[in-house]
């Protein structure tokens, strides 16, 4: 049995795999075992072959075990322009233009597992920020050998005013409790095509206040290139997730508010929905 195009979800009862319309309970499987497998697709196929069919799950946890979450920035032209605009008063505008054109990408730490929010759960705005936005991104699931084997939808929640005040504040603009969301699961499959569409919708009191779409073809860098830079002089014994940047940036007049609902959809991967606490 091939494990290509298999979705793996985390539920209160354990890991669940979906192949076509069928769901299977992976009773003894863990995220760490999947991320440390030499060939995750083959490992997953073996698990499914002996798994028990079950009804579709109704509750989901964050699809992560011991993995760290890292992120790449300024991989889309739209992101470069937004970062330059927000930091111009601090004298950092040219930093983003230079990193967009440089051989070395911007890569930074985003979250530990306990900071990652499950599908349907609430993300949290920083209390010391006045300008917060979601960043819809493709997340790469990378095993401990540095091989991309799967994909997920991600929300890299960011405080634009903090980063804009001084680029050295980037860790504070990116990392805090409930700052990252992943889901709905991890899809183990062949590489996504360049035309893969990423869509963002933000609802406030049930009404859309922002929506937009882009595609992977708008990225300046390739996905393997970003993974190779992350692995340079670094190791991840339990594998990791790498968020690949955003090409969708709400206007400068927009900031998230408590109660907003953020929906991020990526072709072939599904929709990640979170509220803002």
Describe the structure.
With 277 residues, the chain is an alpha+beta fold. The protein has 2 domains: 6-54, no CATH class; 68-276, Fumarylacetoacetase-like, C-terminal domain (Fumarylacetoacetate hydrolase, domain 2, Alpha-Beta Complex). It has 7 helices and 18 strands. Strands 1, 2, 3, 4, 5, 6, 7, 10, 11, 13 and 16 form an 11-stranded mixed beta sheet that branches. Strands 8-18-17-14-15 form a 5-stranded mixed beta sheet, with no helix packed on it. A two-stranded antiparallel sheet has the order 9-12. The longest helix has 11 residues, at 77-87. The N and C termini lie far apart (42 Å). The model has no long low-confidence stretch (mean pLDDT 93).
Cα end-to-end separation: 42 Å
Question: How many domain modules?
Answer: 2
The CATH architecture of the largest domain would be: Alpha-Beta Complex
Number of DSSP-assigned strands: 18
Calculate Rg over CA atoms: 18 Å
* Helical content class: 10-25%
User: Whole-number average pLDDT?
Assistant: 93
* CATH topology value of the largest domain: Fumarylacetoacetate hydrolase, domain 2
Biggest sheet details: 11 strands, mixed
The CATH superfamily of the largest domain appears as: Fumarylacetoacetase-like, C-terminal domain
Which percent range describes the beta-strand content? Answer: 35-45%
The top-level CATH class of the largest domain is Alpha Beta
Q: Given the structure, what is the number of helices?
A: 7
Low-confidence stretches: none
Order of helices and strands: EEEHHEEHHEEEEEEEHHEEEHEEE
